[in-house]
Amino acid sequence: MSGKIFIALFSGINVGGNRIVKMAELRAFFEDLGFSDVATYVQSGNVVFRADNGDAAALTKRIEAAFETKWGFHSRIMVRDFKWFERLVRENPYPEAAADHTKLHAYALEREPTADEVARLAEKCTGPERFEVKGDVLYLSAPDGLGKSVFANLIPRTLKVPGTARNWRSVLALLEMAGKSGSD
């Protein structure tokens, strides 16, 4: 098997009945772009695939442009490789929260936030949530769940670094799927 395993995380599709993209169509779209070993996970848009060439940044641009052409709207996509996902799981600062997947989330960020951006976000984090930023990942521990978290809603506006969140169950499932595809 040639190529390298990547995971694409879509944001803003299949939310609240808007911007509907069927996963079978998304799989076919990736295959039409020449990717292999394509698999999707849940409706929010997670695709594990193998690419023969290109790095995450180049693949992101290519997939975003082709997606917008096909579906007629922009979806921000974070493409990451297997090692990135491995590191994300290994460096989880809240292992005690990982048991309940609804209370631990990881945000894939477009870039590493600056110290000032993180400090601004920390000012808004008045409890019960905790967060930590490691490189281009934000870990959020939300004891009452993401749905009830006021702080979680403030993250995009306050941090101003585009990103997309996944609960811990999705993170682990995607890592497992990528591993099964052969993580070279």
Automatic annotation (TrEMBL):
InterPro entries: DUF1697. It comes from the Bacteria. PANTHER family: BLL4334 PROTEIN, DUF1697 DOMAIN-CONTAINING PROTEIN. This is DUF1697 domain-containing protein.
